[in-house]
Amino acid sequence: MTHRHPLRPLFGDVDPMEVVYYGNYLRFFERGRCELMRAAGGSYRQLADEEGLHLPVTEAHLRYRQPARYDDPLWVETSVAWLKKASLRFDYRILREDHGVENTLVTGYTVHACVDKNGRIRPLPAWVPNLLKTYLQSR
Amino acid sequence: MTHRHPLRPLFGDVDPMEVVYYGNYLRFFERGRCELMRAAGGSYRQLADEEGLHLPVTEAHLRYRQPARYDDPLWVETSVAWLKKASLRFDYRILREDHGVENTLVTGYTVHACVDKNGRIRPLPAWVPNLLKTYLQSR
Amino acid sequence: MTHRHPLRPLFGDVDPMEVVYYGNYLRFFERGRCELMRAAGGSYRQLADEEGLHLPVTEAHLRYRQPARYDDPLWVETSVAWLKKASLRFDYRILREDHGVENTLVTGYTVHACVDKNGRIRPLPAWVPNLLKTYLQSR
Amino acid sequence: MTHRHPLRPLFGDVDPMEVVYYGNYLRFFERGRCELMRAAGGSYRQLADEEGLHLPVTEAHLRYRQPARYDDPLWVETSVAWLKKASLRFDYRILREDHGVENTLVTGYTVHACVDKNGRIRPLPAWVPNLLKTYLQSR
Known about the structure:
The structure is a homotetramer. Chain A is α+β, with helices and mostly antiparallel strands.
């Protein structure tokens, strides 16, 4: 039901409070959904290059529970909250295993619209929900 | 009731869809609250250096309405939604004037807790709400 | 002979050593050359939109002398080292005034080629060197 | 003699020319030296936490030969150019395999000084050159 991808924050991701800068988790979320798509057998690039479609973010939310630090061995866990005709929502959890216990550091979501090169709303190509559903049901 | 600060996206802020990358608006929000504090007569740096306090973000939300583009003459508009004993919320609006009409591009908020160097919740020093209220009531 | 533009590092620009992350000075350099172009009466955007030309960086160099810190009132000083038929070099100095004394924090340069949308080398349009020379000779 | 680590540029790394933003290669270089240290059996974090030492960059150089694009399967190749008593230089190559041919996209180097928490130059702890030499000689 979810996909996990490993991450390690760089020095350049971390701020003077020695924790990952709050804006950089949106980069980690992008990594999560990008790698979920790839694991499912598709890719953002394919969507753009072959179909001329993009999935711009229309809404994002983040809840910061515990800080991630430099070089922490993190995971970004990504799932699909819902799929509609021309939009979808990904849910994310950034977590770190500490002595065998999973700690949830940050949770959040992004909502995406499907648009063509002129910014017009377009239906998601059928292969996108198909791949995502098939992959996530197999987990 | 609000504070405005000008912004121009760099090439490095913009993604291949030729719009500002969704994560970079959180940098623009930081610029907004930082400059609001300065305009009100205080600063984040003062809070950290003189009081040993930080205001980490505990929650963030963004709604992307229209895209901002490279070198657009933008404004970040910042206000204080509420102030509690040990937390506060800033509201933001990124806007661009197009032929005399103000277009709202992105809206959002950040919630902050007041913590000391050990991460313990601490009351906001009285000068923070005082400065912010006095400044924003004068606008 | 030079152009100056003010800068203040964000929390998101600074790393756990409490100094600006070494890669972010290349963003400050971009701000410098972009604002030099604007002050001279042109812009990168004009070059791209009206002429279909870009100035990708072919080489960059940075020397880190003293660290810049969060919210420091910095200047980026930009000048043109040379102009050739299809390339040019900008030189940069990041500086901070400390008690009336100018401290040079970072110096560097970027070399740019002029290319069209297909990546082919093209001569710089005459207005680019003309504007830059006229502006910088007036300083 | 060298270490390789895989990389894939995010949307947030790429600029409107659809190539990786020139400043973001310095993040890729950081990834390279960080993972070289780890592969050799040490880490930056260990240096900071156990010895109170840092390796700030004193000089950086980049030559941009061919562009890297969104989601390209890249490698960052890192080696040690020289080691002195209190400084060292890493060399980098960003490359992409295209139909079995290795294309060099970006080359560069970073020079680092070894300093303590007060910014004073300190000798590199012996384990740093020992680990790096042993590891790179085994390649």
